[in-house]
Amino acid sequence: MKLLTLLLAEDHAVVREGLRAFLKTAEDLQVVGEAKTGREAVDLAVKLQPSVIVMDVAMPKLNGCEATRQILLDNPAAKILALSARSDDEYVARMVAAGARGFVEKQSSGQILLQAIREVGAGKTSFSPAITKRLVQIGRKARQEGFAQGKPQPALTPREEEVLQLVAEGAPNKQIASELGISIKTVDKHRQQMMNKLGIHDTAGLTRYAISSGAIECDV
């Protein structure tokens, strides 16, 4: 059994203590650090190099989005799972754009949180069922509107499909280039071509498209 080390970034002590107590019940998880502010989260991420960082979005001194960006600048392989009481589309999109590999609502069950931590720790993306359902519905609606307006669905090349899946799974360009045996410049080219074809302007949009099109597996 692979042990996943966790950094909890949560400013409310009672929530943080509750998370720690609950996560202790899982034999494959170990909380190695706790951060009360976004800046602490950035510092501890560098110091502890945890398997997964559970990041509250609304953090003092440095919000979860900016903390996520700074952590990934230092370590592009860091795996961050967003946790928030708010889960509107804008909130989710901002965290995904910052580099989070998943998003779970604080209202979710403990089992959903455990599953998300394990999936993110394994290098996958993971969204709570309610968020996944909304992302799929948004994608379906966009495609239906496209059909109604007579717009043909863009066809991605096999290589673009590969890049799309890795991008949606949170892999940085360097990792994508290594896995596919191509240059980082070529990865950038494929990414831009996909965005042009799909009319998408950011990584969050590519992730939503990947979920709605079935390019990555997410339970609804």
How many beta-strand segments? 6
The structure class reads alpha/beta
Radius of gyration: 17 Å
Kindly report the average pLDDT value.
82
Q: What distance separates the N and C termini? A: 27 Å
Can you give a write-up of this model?
- This protein is α/β, with parallel strands linked by helices and 220 residues long.
- The protein folds into two domains: 4-127, Rossmann fold; 135-213, Arc Repressor Mutant, subunit A (Orthogonal Bundle), CATH 1.10.10.10.
- The chain has ten helices and six strands.
- It has helices spanning 13-23, 38-48, 64-74, 89-98, 110-121, 129-148, 158-168, 173-180, 184-198, 203-213; strands spanning 4-9, 29-35, 52-56, 80-84, 102-105, 126-127.
- A six-stranded parallel β-sheet has the order 2-1-3-4-5-6, with helices on both faces.
- Strand 1, helix 1 and strand 2 (29-35) form a beta-alpha-beta unit.
- The longest helix is centred in the middle third of the chain and has 20 residues, at 129-148.
- The two termini are 27 Å apart.
- Residues 146-152 have low confidence and may be disordered.
